[in-house]
Every structure is written in structure tokens, then in C-alpha cells.
Specification:
Length: about 800
């Protein structure tokens, strides 16, 4: 029967294009009813099925009336949001990222939003043990709650069965909001800063005269007198005195000490808060010194006709103080501020400083936060809450739903950790932040003591404003840098283990003065290589093409690329002789040597073995700040913007490995690392010392570090980059193939090399195998495309994309993982 009587509206069909959180290249089209189309807005989520039976939270990207031509549009399951969770500016930013970094919008979507927004049929949910207030729950919610009592984790499929319905995403979302359940990602600890109680004389007794008075006053209270006398003994060590230590040393109970505090003879304090007060920090911003004032003026002038400026300020010049002035002004205009930091776990100091000024206008976004915490920050930014006026965080913070950014600060802009390596999108957060700034018409300030060659180049080309700040605050001098020739020292037998007599002497002098020391060794573990002295064999990782590193404390061999580990063998696996020896050295070995060399001092170690967990870094940093540690040895983590008052000496145990990396950025990176580590020395009053041990004291980079000659380093590196066709002149796209089967990777890369050479000719480098050519049983091969200054980037990417599609249409190549990395590091 013909049906001509249908309402006209049903002939008008509506469609939405959605972003699925999976790596498919394009958006996908679904059909919606007119009512749904009227209700939906870009940036809302809808539940859709895709593939056989999978359900995803997809994001609406477009609403239109054009049916897809290649497939029949399915209906959506349901709408998940009342309002968009992603705004139009973000979508534009995502499009830029997808196109620039050659990835799918789905990759960006997955990286950008907290995983709680990405419910899908495979998601596993867990019950929140601490939830008990079941009165809050609706009938359906209660059913799920009950099911979770029987079985602590459920998939969304199982929940569908419990409720006997398909549309379960909304009720799950409500249960997450009510904290009844959560999505498991990683375990997170809760942390309370360690508040060690310290003791000092009450301010009434800080002069000598009053001390006499005090002792005579206590003449008849023997125990109390003993406490005071012990206190003065301990005080000669010139270190903060723990209440507990005073009690132990004097043999007097904590109660009696407490009584002395009540009498206002002593007072308790906590070093954390005291450190801040000690410098006279109040809530108002500090007054800038004359050089900072000038820098601020120059930045503001440059912002009149440029959107981006580089603040090139030496370590401890007070860049942070300059940022705060700009932040204050932007907040006064009612705009948001994004403050990017290289690695958030390391920068609790800066967070504390900014919180001290801006208090509850700051939110911190942290990839190690729980899902719920991240959703909370996301929603606060989305709803432009007061406490989300300034957002601090590492690279993924660029994805928050900002609506009116006025300023983006990228602190330590040269840091490699701004670049994401894995998974896609392989973006550089500094560069993506610059684009974000443009979309918001916001200003972008890049700060560093050692700017990346690219940024400095852009600044000298007048693309960015350039502002220099060459003096440390308080006219503290730059540290004095001494190069120690350890080849010579070895020859003269003036080395003990890995320490030259000169370094030991400097260390003794500093310890004598009750000052602290930082030692840098860019390798963790005990020794990177174990070798048989009979046959030369060294134990390898079975999954990766790399030697195992010896960790002495648990007598294990570990792989630093996968999680493989095993006991250190007694005999060589190849020849069977008991002649295994260790070569090279890491932080663990240095720590052990230090314990022998300085038995009366406390030694700390900071590397990724000792800083596991959300607050691993914080604990070590706090202990060092509280001067519980005299000598801190660590890896490059030590280079990241830490500010300690009491460090007088920085030692670099071996500069050579850094300089010899086979990478065009190796020299730049070595310079940055050494200058940054050196910058930790002598940040207040007294001039700091830096001792660099090396086999090659005449290396130009070491000379440049020792004379603090950034400009010379820059000019020389730039020359090399020009000559050998590297950034900032040429752009790089790296192509990586990975597969378990070596021959497959090899065939694939050779095919690809030919195809690329046909188009790009001499600008294709490789194929090459990386230094570690197999990781987790995957063989790896690389190709690099160099893009000359005048070649179109867009066109190059189009051609590359075409070749990639052809490659993937070859049946044997299909299982190979194909990775594109634009502006590769
Ligand atoms: P940078 O980030 O350039 O390395 P910081 O901002 O950390 O330098 O400043 C170094 C130290 O000097 C910090 O302890 C900071 O509090 C202090 N400082 C910098 N500028 C001032 C100022 N104008 N007034 C008071 N203290 C300052
Ligand atoms: Zn391995």
C-alpha cells in the first residue's frame, strides 16, 4: 500500500557526523530524528554502536542533512549530554592538531577528554568502597549498586544485562557523579605533606642577654635546663632542629619540651610554611627588581604588536615573579590563564609559590590525578568557575575547555617533555599552545634560561618578541664553573671510584659550611653494562635489543625499556665462567660510593627508581628542603626548575655520555641540561660552585657551559643545523615501522623508502635502525623526511598520506604498525 499521508517532516532526514574515540581517519555519520537534531549541539556526546556490537561515546562534530554515500547511516542510541562538554574553539584546535600531527580526530578526542567521558561497552567499572548512602539512589541505580556488592567490577555489557536494557550510559554517568563507582585507570594515593615538627627559641630569647636570663630563670628546673643546653649543642650544627631529635638527645620527654613551648621559651614550627615566611613572602605579589621591571615593560610593549614573546632569563633571575605580574593583569580583565609546566610531579615548588599569591583561583590538572579529580577540573573550566581562573599543568592541560584565555605561559619552553611520543597525537604542547593562543586571541609567553634553538630562532627572526633578563635576583652571581679533566686524574691516580680528588675537596668544603650538594648522573641503576671478562658476553634483555642494567640493592638485572628483570647470575651465560664484571655507572653506584666517602652525612637519591608513585618526588624534595639530606644524587629530574636555598655545589659526574648521543639535538640538550643543573647552585647570597668531570674538557659545549655562553652555543648549533639540513631550517617527519617479524619490517621499510624517494628524492633519510632496534619484541625501523624551507608542508603531508594509504593496501604490510611523528625529536 502506498503511504502518501506521511508528515512532510519525516522526509527531511537529519544526520550528525561524530568523532569516535578510535583511530579511524574520518568522522562517521549517524541519523537522528528532527527532535534530536534540534536538541543536539556540536560538542555533545551521543552513544552509538560501531562495528559488530561495540558501543562508544561519540562526540558530535557536525549536524546536517546530507546522507553518507558509501554506507547507510545507523541511528544513534541516545544523547548523553544536556550541554556540550567540548566547545567550538576546542574543536578547531583539535582539527589543527589532527591535521598538523597527521592523526585522526578520534586520537585527539581520546587524548583530550578525561576517560570518564569515554564510556564504551568494554569499559570496566568498579565499586567505590567508601560509598554507603544508598538513599541517594534511584531504582535503576540501586540495581547496579546491588550487583556491585556481589561482584566488585562489571563491564557495561554486564550492566546492560542487569538492567535488561541497552541504554545504560546515562545511568552510569549519574553513578560516577554520585561517586558510587569509578572507572579503573591507575591506583592513586592520597598524600599529606609530611609535617615534621621543628623547634627553635621563642623570639623573646633570641639575643644573648636574654639567654643568660633564661638560664638563670631555669636554674632550679634541671630537666628544662638540660633541654636548653642540648638545644644549644645541636644549634652549633647550624641545621634546623627536629623536636624529636631534641627529645632523644637530651633524654627528656616530649611533654617537658611541650611545657617549655607553653612557657614561650621555645616554639614549634614546620619547615614548609616557614620557608615561605622566612623570605618575607606575604600574599601580595613581590615587588620586581629594576631588571624585572624592565623585562615586564618590554614584554608588554612587544605584546602590543606580537602575540608571542620569549623571556630569555638566566636561572634564578625571577622569571616566575615576572609571570605573576602578567597573570595578575590578565585576571583583572576577567580572563583565564593557562600555565604550562614541563612535568608537574617535579614542580610542587612553583605550584606552592603561585598558590601563595593567587590562592583559590588556581586549579592544577595532573595526569596522575584520579578520574574524578580530572572531571572536576574539566567541569570547573567548562563552567568558568572562579577556582579555575588559572590552570596549571603539564602538556595535556592544553586540552581543557577554556572559553576566554587571556594568557598562556609556557615555563621552561625548551623541555623535551612537552613533546608527546606515545600514543598519538604526537604533539608538542608548546607549539599546540601557541595555536591555542591564536584561537583565543590570547598572548603567549615562553620562558627559559636555555631556550630551544627553534624558539630562539623564531625570536631573532622577529616572529616572537624577545626579552632578556641577564641578572640573578638580589645580584647573586652566576655560579662559578670548573671543568675537571678525569683522564688526567685517572692517569695520576687521583680518583676514588668515580670521584676526583678535586670534587671530593669541594664537597668537603661545602659540607663543612653546612651547605648542601647536588650531584648529577644521567643514568639510573648501578651499572648499565655487565660484561664477562673471559668471553666478553653481556646479558641482554630477551624482549629488547639492549643490555640489562645491574641494580645492586636487590641484586637484579633490569631492562629499562620493558619491565623485564631477573636475578644477577653468578656465572656468565655464554662461557660459564664466574667472571662477570660491571662497566659504567649509574646513580645507585654513586650513592653507594658516597656512603663510603661521606659516612657522616645523609645521602639521598632522586631518579625514577626512587620516585615511584604520585608523590614520590615531593617526598624527596621536601626532605632535601628540610635539609635532612646533605647530598642529593639524581638524574635529569634535578634540572627542572627546582629552587633550593642552601645548595652551594653542583657536581656533574660525567659530562661525556650526554655529548656523545647520535642525535642532532645532543649538543643543544647537553648544554641545556648542564646549565639548568648548574642553575640549582648558589641561588641565594653566596656564589655557587659547579664542578664538571669530563674526559674532554676542551669540548666546545663544555667550554660554552663553563662560560655561560648561550649565544655562542646558539650561533654554532645554528650553523650546524643549516649545514646538515635540520630544524629550524628544515622540518622533520619521522616514520617508524614496528612488527614482531624482522623480515616484515625490513621488507616494509624498503618498499616505503623507495616510494618516498620517488617523491622526495634526496630528502629521505634512511632506512635506519634506532640504537635500540627491538623493544618488547617489536623490531623497529625508521625513515626521516626532511622538508626544505620553501617546500609546502601541507602538500608534503598529503603526498605522504597517499603513500601511507598505498602501503596499507598491500596485504603483507597491513599488520605492521605505521607511526608518523611530525617535528620528531
Ligand atoms: P627563575 O624562574 O628565573 O629561575 P625564580 O622566579 O625561581 O627564578 O626566582 C629565584 C628566587 O629569587 C626565588 O626564590 C624567588 O622567590 C626570588 N625572587 C625573584 N625575584 C624576586 C623579587 N623581585 N623579590 C623577591 N624575591 C625574588
Ligand atoms: Zn626489555
Amino acid at each position: 500500500m502506498l503511504r502518501f499521508d506521511i508528515d512532510l517532516n519525516t522526509f527531511t532526514i537529519y544526520f550528525i557526523d561524530v568523532i569516535l574515540p578510535i583511530p579511524i581517519q574520518k568522522t562517521f555519520t549517524y541519523s537522528v530524528t528532527k527532535e534530536e537534531a534540534d536538541f543536539l549541539q556540536k560538542g555533545m556526546r551521543v552513544a552509538v554502536s560501531f562495528g559488530q556490537s561495540k558501543m562508544y561515546s561519540a562526540l558530535v562534530f557536525n549536524i546536517h542533512q546530507t546522507a553518507p554515500t558509501l554506507y547507510e547511516a545507523k541511528e544513534i542510541h541516545q544523547i548523553l549530554d544536556e550541554k556540550p562538554i567540548v566547545n567550538p574553539t576546542q574543536l578547531k584546535h583539535w582539527e589543527w592538531i589532527a591535521s598538523y600531527y597527521m592523526c585522526s580526530l578520534g586520537d585527539v578526542y581520546r587524548a583530550a577528554v578525561p576517560s570518564a567521558f569515554l564510556l564504551e561497552s568494554e569499559t570496566i567499572i568498579h565499586k567505590n568502597e567508601s560509598f554507603s548512602n544508598t538513599e541517594l539512589l534511584s531504582d535503576q541505580e540501586y540495581l547496579i549498586y546491588e550487583a556491585l556488592q556481589r561482584q566488585p567490577q562489571l563491564t557495561l555489557h554486564e550492566i546492560s544485562e542487569v538492567l535488561d536494557k541497552k541504554k545504560v550510559f546515562p545511568v552510569i554517568n549519574q553513578l560516577i557523579d554520585k561517586s558510587v563507582l569509578y572507572i579503573k585507570e591507575e591506583i592513586y594515593e592520597t598524600y599529606k605533606p609530611k609535617l615534621v615538627k621543628y623547634i627553635r627559641l621563642h623570639k623573646n630569647y633570641q639575643s644573648d642577654a636574654s639567654l643568660q636570663e633564661l638560664l638563670s630563670k631555669l636554674a632550679r628546673a634541671k630537666k628544662q635546663r638540660d633541654v636548653v643546653l642540648t638545644f644549644f649543642q645541636l644549634k652549633t650544627e647550624k641545621k634546623p632542629i627536629k623536636a624529636k631529635v631534641l627529645s632523644e638527645k637530651s633524654g627528656i620527654s616530649p611533654q617537658i619540651i611541650k611545657a617549655l613551648v607553653d612557657k614561650e621559651i621555645f616554639e614549634f614550627y614546620h619547615i614548609q610554611t616557614d620557608r615561605v615566611q622566612f623570605k618575607g613572602e606575604e600574599n601580595p605579589l613581590k615587588n620586581l627588581n629594576q631588571y624585572q621591571v624592565k623585562a615586564l615593560e618590554e614584554i608588554e610593549t612587544s605584546f602590543q604588536d606580537k602575540d608571542i614573546a620569549l623571556l630569555h632569563g638566566v636561572t634564578s633571575s625571577g622569571k616566575t615573579e615576572v609571570y605573576t605580574k602578567l597573570i595578575e593583569k590578565v585576571l583583572a580583565q576577567g580572563k583565564q590563564v593557562l600555565f604550562l609546566l614541563p612535568e608537574i610531579a617535579l614542580t610542587t615548588q612553583i605550584i606552592k609559590r603561585l598558590q601563595n599569591y593567587f590562592g583559590n583561583q588556581i586549579s592544577v590538572f595532573h595526569s596522575k590525578y584520579s578520574v574524578n579529580e580530572r572531571v572536576e577540573v574539566w567541569n570547573n573550566v567548562l563552567n568558568t568557575k572562579v577556582k579555575a581562573q588559572i590552570i596549571l599543568g603539564a602538556r595535556s592541560t592544553i586540552f581543557l575547555p577554556f572559553s576566554n584565555l587571556g594568557l598562556i605561559v609556557v615555563d621552561e619552553e625548551h623541555e623535551v617533555s612537552y613533546k608527546q611520543f606515545e600514543p598519538s597525537p604526537r604533539y608538542n604542547a608548546r607549539d599546540a599552545a601557541i595555536v591555542l593562543g591564536k584561537l583565543h586571541k590570547a598572548k603567549v609567553l615562553l620562558g627559559s634560561a636555555t631556550p630551544s634553538i627553534e624558539t630562539k630562532f623564531n625570536a631573532t627572526q622577529n616572529k616572537y618578541g624577545l626579552v632578556n633578563l641577564n641578572r640573578r635576583h638580589g645580584n647573586v652571581q652566576m655560579p662559578k664553573i670548573e671543568l675537571i679533566d678525569i683522564k688526567e686524574k685517572r692517569r695520576k691516580k687521583e680518583m676514588i671510584g668515580h670521584f676526583s680528588d678535586r670534587l671530593i675537596q669541594l664537597m668537603n668544603d661545602v659540607l663543612e659550611e653546612k651547605k648542601q650538594i647536588i650531584l648529577f648522573q644521567n643514568r639510573r641503576g648501578f651499572s648499565p653494562i655487565v660484561e664477562c671478562t673471559t668471553c666478553g658476553n653481556s646479558p641482554q634483555c630477551p624482549n629488547c635489543d639492549v643490555s640489562l642494567t645491574y641494580h645492586k640493592y636487590n641484586n637484579q638485572l633490569k631492562c629499562h625499556y620493558c619491565h623485564y628483570h631477573r636475578a644477577m647470575p653468578n656465572f656468565c651465560g655464554a662461557c660459564g665462567n664466574a667472571s662477570l664484571d660491571t662497566k659504567g655507572f649509574g646513580t645507585e653506584q654513586i650513592e653507594l660510593e658516597l656512603k663510603e666517602l661521606f659516612p657522616n652525612h645523609s645521602i639521598g637519591r632522586m631518579d625514577s627508581d626512587t620516585t615511584r608513585g604520585k608523590f614520590g618526588y615531593q617526598k624527596i624534595i621536601e626532605a632535601f628542603e628540610a635539609q635532612e639530606i646533605d647530598i642529593l644524587v639524581g638524574t635529569q629530574m634535578l634540572s627542572k626548575g627546582l629552587d633550593f636555598d642552601n645548595v652551594l655545589l653542583v657536581g656533574i659526574l660525567s659530562a661525556d655520555t650526554m655529548l656523545n648521543y647520535p642525535d642532532f639535538r645532543a649538543h643543544e640538550r647537553a648544554f641545556q641540561l648542564m646549565v639548568q643543573v648548574s642553575g640549582r647552585a648558589g641561588r641565594s647570597e653566596k656564589q655557587g660552585m659547579v664542578a664538571i668531570q669530563t674526559y674532554n674538557p676542551y669540548h666546545q659545549i663544555l667550554q660554552q657551559v663553563s662560560t655561560n655562553s648561550y649565544e655562542e652555543m646558539y650561533a654554532e648549533q645554528l650553523q650546524d643545523r643549516w649545514q646538515y639540513h635540520y630544524p629550524p631550517y628544515y622540518r622533520l617527519i619521522k616514520i617508524t615501522l614496528k612488527h614482531r617479524d624482522y623480515n616484515k619490517v625490513n621488507d616494509g621499510i624498503n618498499w616505503l623508502a623507495k616510494a618516498l624517494q620517488n617523491v622526495f628524492g634526496e630528502h629521505v633519510l634512511g632506512p635506519t635502525a634506532p640504537a635500540v632496534s627491538r623493544v618488547r619484541n617489536q623490531y623497529i625501523k625508521n625513515l626521516m623526511i626532511k622538508i626544505p624551507p620553501r617546500q609546502s608542508l601541507v602538500k608534503t603531508k598529503e603526498q605522504l598520506q597517499k603513500i601511507k594509504i598505498t602501503f596499507e593496501s598491500v596485504k603483507e604490510f597491513r599488520p605492521i604498525r605505521f607511526i608518523l611523528d611530525v617535528d620528531a625529536y
